[in-house]
Protein 1
Amino acid sequence: MNERTAPAPDLLLDVRDLHTEFATSNGIVRAVDGVSWDVRAGETVALVGESGCGKSVSALSIMGLISKPAGRITGGQILFKGSDLLKRSEEEMRKIRGREIAMVFQEPMTSLNPVLTVGRQITEACEIHLGHTPEQAHARAVEVLGLVGIADAERRLKQYPHQFSGGMRQRLMIAIALSCEPALILADEPTTALDVTIQAQILDLMKDLSRRLGVATLIITHNLGVVARYADRVNVMYAGKIVERGTAREIYASPRHPYTLGLLRSVPRLDEPKRERLAPIQGQPPDLTRLPPGCSFRPRCGYAVERCAEEVPPLERVAGTQHSACWEKDKLPVRAAKPEKVPA
Amino acid sequence: MSATTEGVLVEPASAARRRRWLDLTLSFCRRRPLGAIGAGVVIFMILVAVLAPWISPYDPLAIDFAAMLAAPSAQHWLGTDAFGRDVLSRIIYGSQTALIVGFGAAFIGSTVGAVIGVASAYFGGRIDLVIQRFMDILISFPLIILALAMVAVLGNNLPNLIAAMTVPMIPRCALVIRSSALSVREMPYVDAARALGYRHTRIILRHMLPNVMAPYLIMLTAFLGQAILLEASLSFLGLGVQEPTAAWGLMLRGAAVEFAETAPWMALFPGLAISLAVFAFNLFGDSLRDALDPKLRTG
C-alpha cells in the first residue's frame, strides 16, 4: 500500500491515502476512497474518470470546500509545499484559496458573477490576497487579460460577463485564477462545456501558460483525448479509487487496466481505420453506496476472473512509472491501435 | 452587436448608461401605463414634500381662531380644522412625515430583511433553520399589532417609529429574498468566490445580494405603500407621530371625528391623500414586479 514513503523534494502537492465520504439518505458514499497522487512544481497532471468517480470531490477536498456536515474527509493527508492542508484552520485555508491554489470551473457561462464587471472580478482577488491598491490591481488585471489572449483589455474590463462568449469567459476564469500567481491551478473539466475548436484553444492556452509561468496544473476530465495531448502524467479513477497511473505516453500506448482500455476504445479516432462502431464500456457506473466486494469494475469488465470478485487488486507497478490495480494486468491485450508504434 | 460596440467607443460609458436608463423608463411607461401613473403620483408627492415650505399657502402650525372649521373656499382651498389650521398646508407638510417614515421604514426593513434572507440561504443547514423559525414567529403577528407593541416598548419619537415599523417588515422580506437567494447560492460563481478565498460576509454582500436586486426592489416598493398606511394607522391610534406635527393619520383623529358631520373636509382630504399615496405606491410596485418578473424566472 505504502508505495511512497519519503516525500520527493520537488513535490508541490502530495495527496496521500485521501478518504472523503458523504452521508446520504441511502448510506455512506465513499466518493474518494484511499487515493494517493501528486503534482510536481510546474507540471500538468490529469485526473481522469467518468461522472461520479470522485474527481471533482478530490479537487474540492484539496480546497477545503467539501460541504459540511454531509461531506467529511475521514483520513489521509494533503501535503501542499510540505505541510498538511487538512490541519489548517478555515482562516488559513482562505489565504491559500485563490492565492496559492486557484480553481477553474466547468461552466464558464455561470462561473462569473453576472452583476459584476469582469474587471472587478479580477481585481477583487488581487486586492484581497495581494493587498493591491485599486490602481495596482487594475494594472494586474490588464496584464493577465493580455496573458490569456484577450485584446483591448481596458475596454473589456469594463464589460459584464454576458458580453463575452463561452470560450472568452473560460479565458476570463483562467485570468482570474492566474491573477494572484498561484503555484497550482485545479481545472475541473475546464473544456467540457465548450465546443471542440474552442476546447483545443483553451487547452493550448493553459498548457502554454503553465509552461511560461511555471504554474502546475491539475486537469480533471473524462476525456482521455485531452489527457494525451496536454498532461504529463495521468491518474485514472474509478469508483473513488485510482485504477491506473503513469505518464500520458505510457497509458495511451499500452493501458494496463480494462477500464482505461475501455475509455480509450470509446473515443473516436481519425488516425486509424474507421471502425464500424465505437466500443462503449458496458453497464452503468457503480452505486457508490453498494459497491461489490473485490474489484469495483468487475461487473463491467470483460477480463474478470474469479479472484476479482473476492480481493481488491492493489495498485502495483507494471513498467516504468506505470501502475495498475488489476489482477489480470499482464494478460490484457496490447491496445489494438498501431501496436508497432508503442514506445519502448 | 457591432453597432453597440462601436457606439461604446464613440460615446463615454456614462452617456450610454444614461441612454439605457432613459430607454428603460420609456418602455416601462409604454407597456405599463398604470404603473407610470403610479410613478407619476409618487414623484409628485416627493416634489410636494421637498417644496413644502415654498408651495404651502399657510404655516401648517399657525392657529387662526377667526377661521375655525372654515369650509373650503378661495382662502382655504381645503378648509380649516378645529384650530383654524389650513388643511391643505397640513396635508402638504404631512407628506413629509409620510415619506420620511415610509421610505425610512421600507428601506431599512427590506434591506435588513434582504441581508438576513441571503445570509440564511447562503449558510443553510441549522443556521437557516433557526433564522427561518424566528422569522416565522415574527410573521405570525399581524403587521400593525407588532408595530404597535414595538412603539409601546420603544416610545414614540420619529426614529423609534421607523424602527418599530421595520420589525414586521424584516421577516416578510427575508422570506421572499431567501427563496431567490437559494437558487443564487447554487450558482457556480458563488462556489468560485469561495474557491478564491473570499469571506462569507463579502460573498453575501458583494456577490449574492446584487443578484437578488429584482425581488428586493419589488419588496421595497410594496413596503412603501404599506409603511405609509401603517404610519397613518399608528398616528390615528395615537401611537405614531404626535401633535402638533402635521401627519395624515393624525388629522383623522380627535376633532376630525367630533366634527365629522359638520366639517367633513377635515377628515376627507387627509383620508384621500393617504388612499392616493398608498394606491400610487402599490400601482407602481405591482407594475415593477410584472416588469421584473420574467427576468426573475429566466435568471
Protein 2
Amino acid sequence: MALTALIVLPLLGGIAALFLQRFGRDAERWFSIAVLAAALVALVVAWVGAPPEDAPGPQWLAMVRYQYAPALGLQFLLAMDGLSAALVAVSLALGIVSVIISWNIRKDSGLFHACLLWTVAASNGVFLAMDLLFFAFFWELMLVPSFLLISIWGHGDREAVALKFLVFNAVAGLGLLAAVFWMAATAPEITFDAFVFAEMGIPPVAQVWLLLGFSLAFLTKLPAPPLHAWLPDAHTMAPTAGSILLAGLLLKTGAYGLFRFPGMLFPDGFHVLAPYGLALGAFGTIYGAVLACGQTDAKRLVAYTSIAHMSIVLMGLAGGVHFAMMGAGVEMIAHAFSASALFLLIGALYDRTGTRDLRELGGLQQTAPRFAAAFAVFFSAALAMPGTANFLGEALVITGMFQVNWVLAAVALVSLVVSVVYATRLLKRIVFGAPIRACVVQDLTWSELGPIVVLATGTLLFGLLPQLLLVVLEPAVDAALAPLARP
Amino acid sequence: MLTPFLALLLVPAPAMGAFLLLGLGPAELNRRAVQTVALVGAVLPAVVMLPLGAYCLMGTCDGIQPIFDLTVGDAVVALALKLDPLSAIVGVTVTLIGACVIGYSIDYMAKAEVPDLRRYFALMNLFLASMLCMVLAGDSIVLFLGWELMGLCSFFLIAYHVTSSRAIAAGRKAFVITRVADAFLLAALLLLFLEAGNVRLDALIPAGIAADELRQGLIAALILAGALGKSAQLPFHTWLPSAMAGPTPVSALLHSATMVAAGAFLLARFAPLMQAVPLVMALTAVLGAATALFGAASAVFQKDVKRLLAYSSISQIGFMLLALGLGEPEVAIAHFVVHAIFKSLLFLSAGDITQIARGTTDISAMRGALWSRPLAFVAFAAGAASLAGIPLVTAGWFSKEAILAAAWLAGPFGVVLWLVAMTAAVLTATYAFRPVFTGLTRIGRPRPSLGGIFTNLPIALLAVATFAVAPLVEPIMEFLGGAAPHPPHAVELVGAAAPFLGIALAAALTFVPGLSLRVARARRMRSGIRIDGIYQVIIVQPFVKMVRWLTGQRGGIADPVGSIPVLVAQRLTAAAIRPLAHDPLDRGWMGLGAGMVRAWGAGRRIQSGRVRDYALALALGLALLLLIAWGTTWR
C-alpha cells in the first residue's frame, strides 16, 4: 500500500493544490510540502516493512500487485529495490527543495505546485512500475507537467523550448511504446508484466531491436549525444524548480531505465549493443565537458556538464561489470544533488541580478561570502573532488572501465581533467573577480541556505561514508548483472 | 581497541576542526578569534605528532589505525592511517613547518579584512589537514583524498587575491596541470586496487610487484607521472613559478616545503614497487637530474625573489627525484626534511623583507636589507647557506652531498648524473647568494626595524633548525632504514668546493655591472626557456579554438552533434509536409466540383433549340438502338 501512496499521494495532492490557492496565502506551498513529507513517510514504511513474499528476487524491498484490467493483462504492479528506493527518496527530497525555493512564484501558483507534484508522482511511477504499460504511461505522463513548467514559468523563448523538449521526448518515447506492445503481443498470453517478459526468452535478434526501441527513449532522456539537443535549451529556459526537477529526476529516469531493463529483459541484446553504448558514453563525456568550457550562460554550462556526467553514468551502465554499475548508481544520486544545487544557486543569482551571462557576473566572494562558499562546495562536487559522492561514482566507473577497456578508462580520466577547466571557469566568472554591475547582491537567505545545506550534506555524507549508499545499491546491482553472466 | 596509534586520528583532526569552525562557525568571529582558532588548529597537530614521532623512535614504529571498512562486491576497502618511519619523519616535518608558517601568517596577513583572513586561515588549516591525511595514509583512498584536497586548497590559495586576474589565471593553471597528474595517479591507484582487491598500501605494493611486467611498468610510470605533476618537475613545472601569485606564506607552505615535495614522498612511499621497474627508475633519475639543472639555471636569471625561490624548489625536488631514481629513498626523504626547513625559512624571511619594501618582490627590494631588517636578513642568509650547501655546518650540505654520492656510486651512468647534479649544485649556490649579496649593499641611511613576535619567532626557530638538523641528517637516513653513501674523499672535496665556486659566481653577477646587466636581459632563461609558450601553442590554443568552434563562436553551428540532427529532421519534416500543406483530399473534392461545372458547360450545348438538331439526335438514337438490338439477336 505504501508504494501506491508514493505515486497516488502527489498525484491527488497536485489536483488538490490547484484549488488550495484560494484558501489563504501560501496554503498550496505548505500543502505541497506536507504531501511530499507524507510520501517520505510512506517511503520509510515501505522500505522498513517486511520483504514481499511473492517477489521474484531477494533484492526487492517492497511490492504491490493489483489486477487492474485482467482482460487486457494489465496489472498495477509496483516493485522497489535499493536503487528505486534511493531515487524515490531523492525525488521526494528534491520536490520539497523545489517548493521551498519557488516561494516567490506568484503566477498561477496553484497550477505551478500541481505541476511540481505531478512531476514527482510520474517520476516515482517510473522508478517503481514493473508493469511495462504503466511504466510507459508514467514515462509519457512525466512530460506534461514539465512541459507546462517550462512553457508557463520559463524564461526567454520558453514556448518554443518547451515544444522542443516535448517533441524530442515524445517521439523518443514511441520507441519504448512500440517495443512494449510488441512484447505484449508475442507473450504466450497477453501481459505487460516485466517479470514475465524476463522469463519469456525473447529471441536474440528481437532482443536487439527491442533494446534499441527502449534505448531510444532512455538515451534521449539521459541525454546522450546526439539526442541531447533539447537539454541545454530546456535547462536554461526552465524556472529554477523546473531545472532542478529536470536534472534531478527526469535525467535519472533515463539512467534508471538503462539500469533496470537491458540486463533484465534483453541480456543477449545487451551484449550486442553494449560496445556502442560505451562508445557513446565515452564520446558524450568529452563532448559535454568540452562544450561546457565554452558556454557564456551559467545554466547552459551546468546543462552541458550534466551531459558529461550522465555520459559517465552511461559508460558505467554499458560496462556490465560490478564496479562500473555500482559507480553508475552512485553517480546518479550524486549528480542529482550536485547539479540541482548548482541550478539552485544560479537561479538564486538570476533572481537577484536578472542575468545568467557569465561575462556580466563576478565578485560574489566579496559581496556574498555564503553564496561563494556554497559555490565552492558544489564546484568541488562538479569536478569530483574526493570526499564528494561524485568522486565515489566516477572512481568506481573508472575502475570498472579498467576491467572493460583501458581506452575507456583513459577517456573518463580526460573528462575528469576537462572538468577542472569548466568548473574553475564558473568559479572565476561568478565568485572571483571584482564585483561588476548589479552583482552587489544580497547573500543567501535562510530559505535558500536550508536546501543548499541539505544537498551539501547529501553530497558529502555519501562521499565520506559511502557504505550508506553502497549497501543499498549492491543487491540491485547484483540482480541487474546476474542475467548478463554468460554461461 | 586502544592503541597508541589511535593518536594518529588526532593529528589531522585539529586542523580539520579549525577549518570547519572557520568555515561554518558563527559570522561574528572577530579578528582575534579567527587568528586564535587558526593557530590552535595549526599547533595542536604538532603537539600530537611529536610524541608519536618519539614513540616511533623508541622502536615500535609500525602501526595501523583502521578508520572503517567498506565492501564493494568482493573487494574490501579498508581505510586506515599508518605510522612507520617514513610517515613519522615527514609527519613531524609537516606539522612543525605548518605551525611555523601559520603562526607567521598572523602578522603577515594582519592587514587583511576579517572575511578574507577567515577564508585564508580556513584554507591553510584545510591544507594542513589534507597534507597530514596524505602523509599518514595507510590506504590509497585516504592518500588520494589528501592528495586532491591539497590541489583544491592550492587553487583557492593561489587565487586568494580574487580581484587579480593574474592570480586567478595562475590558480587555474596550477589546478589543471596538477589535475592531469592526479588523473595519472588515480589510474595507477585504481589499477593497483584491481590487482590487489584491497586498498591498504601494505597490500597494494606487493600486489603491484606481483603483477605481470606490462602492468607493473604501466603502474610505475603512472605513479611517476603523478609525482612529476604535483612536484612541478619537467615537463609539468610551468605552474609553479606562476603560483607565486599567492600570498608569501602560501608559497612557503604549499608551493615549496610540503605540497610540492609531496611527489617525492609519494615515490618514497611506493619505492619498493618503483624499484621493481628499472626503466622507470632510470627515467626518474634522469628527469630528476635534468630538472635540478634546469631549475637551478633558470633560478639564476630570475628578477623576482619569489620566482627565484620557486625555480629553486623545482630544482631541489629534482635532486630528491634523482636520489629516488637511484634507489635511495631514505636520502631523498632526508633532503625533503632539510629542504622543507630552509625553503620555508627563505620564503618567510624574504616575505618579511619584501613586505617592508612596499610589497614588491623584485630582488632589488632586498637591497640594504642587512641594515633595514637585520634579523630577517640574517635568517635569509642562513637559509641561503643551507640551500647552497656550505660544508659541515649546514644541513643542506649533508643531504645534498648524500645525493651526489649516491649518483657517483651508481656506475658510469651515475657519473654522468653526478656531473649534471654537480653543475646544478654550483648554480644553486649562485642563485642562493644573489639576493644575499644584494642585501649587503647599503642604500641611504636605513633605520633597523624588527617585526612582531609572530614574524620573528618562526623565522628564528627555522633559522636555528637549519643548523641544528645538520648532525641529524645521517641518523634520519638510518632511521628510515638506509645508510648515507660515502664516495671517495676526492669526490667529497669537489662537492665541498662547489658552493664556494657558486658563491664567487654570485658575487661576480651582483657586483660586476656588465655581468649583472646581461643577466637582467636574459629573458629566455627567465621564462624557463619558454616551455610555457610551447604549451600555449600546442595545447591551450588548440583547445580554446576547438571550444570556440564547437560553441559556434567562430561562425560554425553551436553544438554541431546536437543541432545537426535537429536541423536535418526539421528539413525532412518540412519537405514531407509542404505537399500536404493544402490538404490533397480537399483538393480532390474541389476538383470534382470544378469538373462538374465544366461538364455542365459542355453539356448545355446539346440543348440548342433547333428542331433539326433534335431530329438528328432522334435518328441517331434510333439507329443506335436498332444496332444494339440487331447485335444482340444476331448471335
